[in-house]
Amino acid sequence: MTTEDEPDVTFTSTVRADEITFSEVPDTSVDFPGDADDRSTSGSDRTHLPSPVRPHVTYHDIQVDYRIKAYLDEADRTDP
Length: 80
Description:
Blueprint: E1 9-21, E2 41-47, E3 58-70
Antiparallel strand pairs: 1-3, 2-3
């Protein structure tokens, strides 16, 4: 059981690369279907990687720290 301010699900990831080149600009999105509360969020912190990226540009020494925080809709919670 989480407290009111804590997300029910938390996902974090870090990706690093010495260099990366995109052949096209990726189309990305995050959806919270089903029982997700409106407080659910996602986002990233990028180092040496703009948003959006440009095709055929090589980026060096990049890092992306990504996080998702999901909250269940209160109406769908069940106590153990």
